[in-house]
Structures are given as C-alpha cells and as structure tokens.
Amino acid sequence: VKATSGRQIFPPLHTLRSAEKELLPGFHQFEWQPALKNVSSSWDVGIIDGLSGWTASVDDVPADTIARRFRYDVALVSALKDLEEDIMEGLRERGLDDSTCTSGFTVVVKESCDGMGDVSEKHGSGPAVPEKAVRFSFTIMSISIRADGEEDAVTIFQEQKPNSELSCRPLCLMFVDESDHETLTAILGPVVAERKAMLESRLILSVGGLLRSFRFFFRGTGLDEKMVREMEGLEASGSTYVCTLCDSTRAEASQNMVLHSITRSHTENLERYEIWRTNPFSESAEELRDRVKGVSAKPFMETQPTLDALHCDIGNATE
C-alpha cells in the first residue's frame, strides 16, 4: 500500500494465482500431428513423477529415487505461450502478414543438464534421499519461419540472454548423483523418448489467436564435459581417453594439441557399447577396452558434438 495515496499497487492474491497457473505447464490446449508415440494425448498435465513413462527392462536397476518433472511437450507449449508476444512482435517487425504465417515455424531448443552438488539436509529428519541433485532444463534459443514459396527462413525470435537463468526453464529435478548412470538413464529415459517422438511430429498451438504449427530441433549443448561423458556412456574424466568427441588418448593429446577432429557419434557409441557387452572377438579386458575406446556404459542421450569444455582448454593451451 502506497503510504501517501493509500492506493494498493500489488494485485490481490487471487489474480496472482491465476496468472501463475497460466505460466505453469498444463494450462494451454494443444495437439500434435501425428499424435506423439507412447505419450498420452491429454494436455492438462501438471507435475508428474520423474519415473513415469519408464518401462523397466530386465537388466535395469530399479531406480529408487525422488524425481519430479513436467511432460516435455507440455513444458514446451508453456514456454511458447510465454513468448507469444515476442513471436507476434517478431512477425510484425519482419513485415509478415500474421494470418498467412500459420505453418512452417521452427523452434530450436537448447537443453542443459547438470548436477547441483550437495543438497543434503544438515540435521533434518526427512526421508533418506541421495544427497546430490540433478536438474534438466531447456532454453528456447530461436524461432524462425519459412514463408510459403520463400527459400530462406526468417528468424522472428532470438533469445538475447541464452545463458541466463531467466530464460532457462526447468523440466526435471531429481535426487540422484550425476555419476549414477543407471538411475540417470531411468529418469531421463522417458524425457529422451518424448523428445524423440516430438522430432517426428508437428505441434499445433494457438498463438496470437490463430492455430500455428511448430517443429522442434534439440541441441544438447548446455551439458558440461562430465555430463556429456555420463550421457554418452564414456569413462569418467580420469580415463586415458581424454576426449568426449574423438578417440584421443592422453599421450596423443599431449603430443598433438591442434589436430582434434570430431569423430564420435551417438550411433557409434551405441555400437561400441554392444561390442563391450558381448565381446564378440573374445578379447582380454585390456584389448576390449582399446577397441571401444572408453565406452563402457549404454549411452542414452544424444548430445550434439560442439566445442565442449575440454576442447576449449586444449585450444587455450595451444594459444
């Protein structure tokens, strides 16, 4: 309450509540064409258990942890609705007729995932949970549209502060140590499955009063080196294979700091894991390890190979 005029400048609580509901995932209607595989079609989904959507297989360890998340598509819809004004503004600035721009939107999403360190209760009596937490989040980097008959796409929204916590939207929070590969796979498995389903479908969502269609592209580049190793099933950072992008060993890297090229791919890591698991050539542990070049767990999340922390270090050392 302003002292001089006696006017109340804050909106009353109930209006804040309803505004808040609109910002949380699970408020806006949308549909996918074709419908997403293995994902329910209901859109009014709030916070769900982190393990929902995970079908345990025989050799998986049951994940005994607490995790909460939004369904990926529902969270993306909420993020787009949040940017509704920016999208309309972008169309106006580019001189695009808003009524003709109903399809052909492309959204690039950057994913980030990292451990949050020690989150233990110092002297509470809550449930016994792992004392580490991991947060998986995403940022909408850009939205572009290719108008009918046009060759080039026009960017109508670009995130100005892509590394700010204000543009970074949490998707999943879990009590788990980031080096616990099995539990991490179990929790992020469904997220990966949803992401994969969305790549093959288009989102139909009302923006600015008209139904528009969006395609999504995901870039997992917000992950640090430790996390990339974890996701791609590589040995930890003390490994002789120093690099998350190529098969360089420590000895080779120290001899040659310049000629590093990206040689790894997710598919190749999967193949190597199979070799590691089955050992088709009946080799000794040492020979087998040399063959798979440090892939020792099943990679479950494809990360786009870009310059990671290690290569920046190598580059700086070269400088």
TrEMBL record:
Residues 31-103 form the V(D)J recombination-activating protein 1 pre-RNase H domain. Residues 107-239 form the V(D)J recombination-activating protein 1 RNase H domain. GO terms for biological process: adaptive immune response; B cell differentiation; chromatin organization; T cell differentiation in thymus; V(D)J recombination. GO terms for molecular function: double-stranded DNA endonuclease activity; histone binding; protein homodimerization activity; sequence-specific DNA binding; ubiquitin protein ligase activity; zinc ion binding. Residues 241-303 form the V(D)J recombination-activating protein 1 ZnC2 domain. One of its GO terms (cellular component) is nucleus. Residues 1-30 form the V(D)J recombination-activating protein 1 DNA-binding domain. PANTHER family: V(D)J RECOMBINATION-ACTIVATING PROTEIN 1 (PTHR11539:SF0), VDJ RECOMBINATION ACTIVATING PROTEIN 1 RAG1 (PTHR11539). This is Recombination activating protein 1. The lineage of its organism: Eukaryota, Metazoa, Chordata, Craniata, Vertebrata.
